[in-house]
Amino acid sequence: MAEEKVFTISELAAMFDISSRTIRYYEEIGMLTSENRDSLTKQRSYTNRERRRLKMILRGKKLGFSLQEIREMIELYESNPEGEAEKSMIIAFADSKLREIEEQIMQLQMLREDILTYKEKYENSRVKS
Amino acid sequence: MAEEKVFTISELAAMFDISSRTIRYYEEIGMLTSENRDSLTKQRSYTNRERRRLKMILRGKKLGFSLQEIREMIELYESNPEGEAEKSMIIAFADSKLREIEEQIMQLQMLREDILTYKEKYENSRVKS
DNA sequence: CTCCTAGTTGACGTTAACGTTAGCTTAGTT
DNA sequence: AACTAAGCTAACGTTAACGTCAACTAGGAG
């Protein structure tokens, strides 16, 4: 197996155009982990696994979810349910999130239509170039 | 013309399930106006026009936009451009917002797919009822 | 050895978006 | 007349999500 590439905190920050502080903050509140820190220098290092996790967090943010909501989704995503009851709970949670997301998509499409209509109003009133 | 119905602040708040304070706050930062306040009691009253405006604000919030961004969109929406230059600016702004929104819709659809896939994984592993 | 760069840990500062409380007025009961 | 409900202003409080700054350490470059 190829040695997996690891990143420093500022490399990771640059990738997503955020600050190092933001990454440390996410760790502070337990949304990101940095195991295998250099035992001497205490420097953090990140693997692709953490990079993907961070990407999920930032996607959630862009969609308007709070870090708290994102945390719940991710925890669910990475949970390993034991019994049938837990599985059912997960499915129920997923369903409710799905409805939320579908509602959001619909609203966005309506907003899109509104803006389009609005825009056309001005395009049609322009002088022919 | 029929007399237009007006609402008190708490009626309006109840309609949208928000607090009166929130409405006053929106006025404070200039996103909502309440003309025609009772000259003696200083009580605010709202017409359908303001109700629609509030609805737009709340829709924006649900979609994850900040009040500042929403303010810009509404200002644009209600602006009355004079020359061709202004119209072009409005159209350009609308286009950029449209791209933003379309991107957001795409991301949401991807998230939706992810959740669906994830959910099916658990549904298929359940015992037949 | 000196300097510079990157990183670290506190800890306090900041902004948006309201919540909460106090003290006052007015309108409508009882 | 006393009380209650709804609203008002002014002002301080709160939470999320970082920004910023100080004081320190380790690893190279020259």
UniProtKB/TrEMBL annotation, chains A, B:
Signal peptide: none
InterPro entries tied to this protein: DNA-bd_dom_put_sf, MerR-type_HTH_dom, MerR_fam, Tscrpt_reg_MerR_DNA-bd
Domain of life: Bacteria
Coiled-coil region list: 91-121
Organism of provenance: Cytobacillus firmus DS1
Pfam families hit by this protein: MerR, MerR-DNA-bind
Protein name in the entry: Transcriptional regulator
Molecular-function GO terms, alphabetical: DNA binding; DNA-binding transcription factor activity
Keywords: Coiled coil, DNA-binding, Transcription, Transcription regulation
HTH merR-type domain segment(s): 6-76
